[in-house]
Design brief:
The protein has about 250 residues and is mostly beta strands. The protein has a single domain (about 25-254), classed as Jelly Rolls, CATH 2.60.120.200. The chain is built from two helices and 21 strands. Strands 1, 5, 6, 10, 15, 16, 17 and 21 form an eight-stranded antiparallel sheet that branches. The chain has a seven-stranded antiparallel sheet with strand order 2-9-18-11-12-13-14, with no helix packed on it. A hairpin with a 2-residue loop joins strand 16 (about 185-190) and strand 17. The chain is globular, with a radius of gyration of 19 Å.
Length: about 250
């Protein structure tokens, strides 16, 4: 009887287990991004310029270098899957390494095309900014997760939740991830859940992925050195990505 009861409980547990289907596996092979999946978005953003010149694919990894030209222009990299790939209530991970200087922030994150529409009460359907790995030069090798919903412009409707982790992780390769559903968000580090967030509504909107660097002269991410970061070949202001994966819940398993 005890053996039968254990088997029944075990079977029930297996039946309730969430199953996922791999929908993206990017290992950055070759010397260029796969244009069917990725965009390099360009143009002025904050106190810098997003440029293809900051993005390199080599030796099986993506490297985004934030650097400063002789004319004082600082260049960043903004790589996204906007309008090409998105996931809905699933999970995503990336294996990353970073060395970020003051005045720069680097991130692995997700965003929806309809973010902010309808204010905070409509966040579940409009989508959420999901910052899975966000770091700046003033964080000195540590990182945080952050969630934003309800829009950006109006402080009365903009909502956010975040947690900073004290582990100095930047110089080594680690896997950063998130899984989300109606119940909230579960953030992971090297495969282990390190934070759960139920404050933010679980996004039901398709979320595209971003791998980015941004730079400001002086902001919450620190103050950019007066001479900038130096030319690209000498800049040590980098965000490296070994691979990116994404999964959606298996419809047959729901």
């Amino acid at each position: 009887m005890r053996t039968l009861l254990c088997l029944l409980l075990s079977s029930a547990g297996l039946a309730a287990e969430t199953k996922f289907k791999l929908v993206l596996e990017e290992n950055f092979e070759g010397t260029a991004l796969n244009e069917k999946i990725w965009n390099i978005e360009t143009g002025k953003r904050k106190d810098a310029v997003n440029s293809e010149k900051s993005v390199d694919v080599k030796n099986g990894q993506l490297t985004i270098t934030t650097w400063t030209d002789t004319d004082g222009t600082t260049y960043c990299g903004f790589v996204t899957t906007r309008k090409k790939f998105a996931i809905t209530q699933g999970k995503t991970e990336a294996r990353c390494r970073f060395a970020v200087a003051p005045g720069t922030q680097s991130a692995f994150w997700a965003q929806s095309e309809t973010y902010g529409q309808g204010g905070p009460t409509a966040a579940a359907t409009a989508g959420v900014e999901i910052d899975i790995l966000e770091t700046t030069g003033v964080m000195k090798g540590t990182y945080q997760y952050a969630l934003h919903w309800g829009g950006y412009e109006n402080p009365a409707t903009h909502k956010e939740s975040n947690q900073r982790f004290t582990t100095v992780a930047g110089k080594s390769w680690h896997v950063y991830g998130v899984e989300w559903d109606d119940a909230g968000y579960r953030f992971s580090f090297d495969g282990k859940v390190v934070a759960t967030d139920k404050k933010c509504p679980g996004s039901k909107a398709p979320e595209y992925l971003l791998l980015t660097s941004e730079s400001t002269a002086k902001s919450w991410n620190g103050e950019r050195p007066k001479g900038g970061y130096g030319p690209k070949e000498k800049s040590k202001n980098t965000f490296e990505v070994d691979w990116v994966k994404a999964w959606e819940r298996d419809v047959a398993a729901k």
